[in-house]
TrEMBL record:
Residues 1-15 form the signal peptide. This is Transmembrane 9 superfamily member. Belongs to the nonaspanin (TM9SF) (TC 9.A.2) family. Its main location: membrane. The keyword ATP-binding does not apply.
Length: 403
């Protein structure tokens, strides 16, 4: 009898259910997905406008100005005309002079290659659905493991650049590459974790996990860096397209807008402007306990970031060489890397406008972790700008006839 009554009451309820067109695997998207597609599309359009603007400038420099310069330089026939060369060709004997603190530059370039590889592969896996944002520990574990195995490419890139700078002690550069960036990040992380321990919070990283992280660093990452450095140093050195003079040329007085500090700070604005809207969603996901599920948007913004860093650095490098300033090595790295400064300033703005954090320890945790993120962003974007300028300078100076 009870069974009959159950059927009678359930029949009207069953009639209310309709077959859904939503696939079973996508039924949780309404809870996990951040439904701000219009804002995301606005972010993409904003970033694309910046890229198109920079691409127009680069095209004008590469196709018009450079073509005219190279044609004029190659048509010089008399010795008097050759002595009157101006612009970027004038510094051809110094443009590939080894920079100051070249070892440190090699270390940071190698570390940037490691960061770039980690971020790129992580985003590919996330887009393919292998990394669910609901499992936050899984995403972080994947990034750490990828960082460890990308040490092979870090050692290779740093030793290749080191050999181009006529370096001979590849083990020293491999050691610095393996320890400089991880040591700084680990020191900040240990201090922050000690603060959590002091508060007797369950959010502190246990000793077992700390030991595992140290093992990954010393047991896997460091050997891979040395292997990569050995393989890179074994290869023949990259030859410069022009010869370097023995006596460095005096750099003329520069205009105020070509001041290194001003030029570097200006160069970081556009890369940050290309990603700052998407950065809001990332910070919200991390600090307001929301889910970030739109990795396709994120990957597209990441590609736009790479293009923007490369283009703005090439443009400013060309202006610098035209003003007869050949010290471009470090400036190319710092120009795009300065976007990390704006990232940290935006994180500070976000803290005071979006978060209600009142405890001192919580505020220290926030700024400590954002400092680590900004440092990694500096290394990543700086390396992109450096390689773009290296490719650009080698291209233009190999295209002119120089006696």
């Amino acid at each position: 009898m009870e069974f009959v009554f159950s059927i009678i009451f359930l029949l009207p309820a069953a009639a209310l259910f309709q077959e859904s067109e939503v696939k079973w695997a996508s039924r949780w998207d309404a809870y996990l997905l951040m439904n701000d597609n219009q804002i995301h599309w606005f972010s993409i359009v904003n970033s694309l406008m910046i890229v198109l603007f920079l691409s127009g400038m680069v095209a004008m420099i590469m196709l018009r100005t450079l073509y005219r310069d190279i044609s004029r330089y190659n048509e010089l026939e008399t010795q008097e005309e050759a002595q009157e060369e101006t612009g970027w060709k004038l510094v051809h004997g110094d443009v590939f002079r080894i920079p100051t603190n070249s070892d440190l530059l090699c270390v940071y370039v190698g570390t940037g290659v490691q960061c770039l590889g980690m971020v790129f592969v992580t985003m590919i896996f996330a887009m393919l659905g292998f990394l669910s944002p609901s499992n936050r520990g899984g995403l972080m574990t994947a990034m750490l493991l990828l960082w460890v195995f990308m040490g092979l490419f870090a050692g290779y890139a740093s030793s290749r650049l080191y050999k181009m700078f006529k370096g001979t002690e590849w083990k020293r550069i491999a050691f610095r590459t393996a320890f400089l960036f991880p040591a700084v990040v680990s020191a900040i992380f240990f201090v922050l974790n000690a603060l959590i321990w002091g508060q007797k919070s369950s959010g502190a990283v246990p000793f077992g996990t700390m030991f595992a992280l140290i093992f990954l660093w010393f047991g896997i990452s460091v050997p891979l860096v040395f292997v990569g450095a050995y393989l890179g140093f074994k290869k023949p050195a990259v030859d410069d397209p022009v010869k370097t003079n023995k006596i460095p040329r005096q750099i003329p007085e520069q205009a105020w807008y070509m001041n290194p500090v001003f030029s570097i700070l200006i160069g970081g604005i556009l890369p940050f402007g290309a990603v700052f809207i998407e950065l809001f969603f990332i910070l919200t996901s991390i600090w307001l306990n929301q889910f970030y599920y739109i990795f396709g948007f994120l990957f597209l913004v990441f590609v736009i970031l790479i293009v923007t860093c490369a283009e703005i650095t090439v443009v400013l490098c060309y202006f610098q060489l035209c003003s007869e300033d050949y010290l471009w090595w470090w400036r190319s790295y710092l120009t795009s890397g300065s976007s990390a400064l704006y990232l940290f300033l935006y994180a500070t703005f976000y803290f005071f406008t979006k978060l209600q954090i009142t405890k001192l320890v919580s505020a220290m945790l926030y700024f400590g972790y954002m400092l680590i993120a900004s440092y990694a962003f500096f290394v990543l974007t700086g390396t992109i700008g450096f390689y773009a300028c290296l490719w650009f300078t080698r291209l233009i100076y190999s295209s002119v006839k120089i006696d």
